[in-house]
Structures are given as structure tokens and as C-alpha cells.
Amino acid sequence: MTGAERHTGYGGDDGLADGLDRLWTPHRMTYISGEDRPEGGYEKPAGCPFCLAPGLPAEESLVVARGEHVYAVLNLYPYNPGHLLVCPYRHVADYTELDEPETVELAAFTKAAMRVIRHVSSAHGFNLGMNQGGVAGAGIAAHLHQHVVPRWGGDANFMPVIGRTKVLPQLLADTRELLAKAWAAAA
């Protein structure tokens, strides 16, 4: 039996193996199914995880660093280890709604996040971006957040299908502690 025949993934109707390894991540079903969405949704600050996170203990909220207008928090459902979100404290949906101090600090925190991640994990590159609106892919469209996703050569090359497997080798709490210590030292 070949490796392709042994694994559990199959392609189309022909029943042939698709050649992909499977790494089961059942914790993501909560996100995919929306089970963890608050009853009123994310539109109001009372149900918004980005509004609630700064008021929780750092270990529970996964907040890495706090500024005057924005903060950095680990993504609960990361694309790669160290995937950070830079969020304004204020509940705004659109980049154009940020005032000047928020815009300046969001940019500064994005730069700091890149430096810190590069320092602790030797990232080769980054994907930076904001998904503005649900149609643009924002899971929580009501509260603006800047993604800072570290990348390494061969980590996934844009889509997990190309990399064949996605591995997150570190627990979020451990990643938060490592980044928070490095951020404090860099400040």
C-alpha cells in the first residue's frame, strides 16, 4: 500500500486519494459553527471579544501588549504561531473611522509586533492586513483589527493545501507569555 492509499483523504467521486495529510483541529469547530458567538452578536461592544479582552487577565485574554489607543492580542484561531491582532480599544468597524492617534499607534504596534515576532521566532516574512466587512472575510467585522501573521519559508506557501499539513507547535498561553516578555523588553 502506498502512502496515498493509506491516508484517509480522498479526492472527487473517483475515490482516489488526494495526497493530503490530515491534522485534526476540532477546537476550530467552535469558531466555524459560531458556537462561541454571543447571543446579540459582535455588533455591540457588550458581545465583542475585542472589547472584552482588555478587561480580562492577560493569561485569559491572550493580550500581549497594551498601548494608549490600541492593544496587541494573539489570534484565538491562528493561521501560524504568533499570529497577532492589533485592535483599537474603541469599537469601530472601518479603518476610516479611526482618529489620528489611533491610526498612528496602530501602525506603531504593527511595526513593534513584527520586530518582536521576528526576535522570538526568526520569522522570514509577514502577512499584514485588515478584512473590512464580512464580504471581505472579516470574522468579526464590527471591530477593526490588523492581522500580523508571521511566515516562514515552506510554512504553507499561501494555502494549507500546498503545504499539505498545518502545525501549530506551541500552546497559545506559551506563545502569549513569550511575546509579552519580548515586547516588554523591546519597549
Give helix % range: 25-40%
Shape: globular
Assembly context of the chains: single chain
Strand order of the largest sheet: 1-2-3-5-4
Number of helices: 7
Biggest beta sheet attributes: 5 strands, antiparallel
Helices and strands, in order, run as HHHHEEEHEEHH
Q: Strand tally, please?
A: 5
Radius of gyration: 18 Å
Ends apart, CA distance between termini? 56 Å
Uncertain stretches: 1-11
Query: Mean of the pLDDT scores?
Result: 80
Helix/strand structural class: alpha+beta
Describe the structure in brief.
This protein is of the alpha+beta class and 187 residues long. The chain has helices spanning 3-6, 29-33, 49-52, 58-61, 100-121, 160-163, 172-186; strands spanning 63-66, 70-74, 84-88, 125-129, 146-151.
Description:
This protein is of the alpha+beta class and 187 residues long. 31% of the residues lie in helices and 13% in strands. It is built from 7 helices and 5 strands; from the N terminus they run H-H-H-H-E-E-E-H-E-E-H-H. The chain has a 5-stranded antiparallel sheet with strand order 1-2-3-5-4. Helix 5 crosses helix 7. The radius of gyration is 18 Å and the shape is globular. The N terminus is likely disordered.
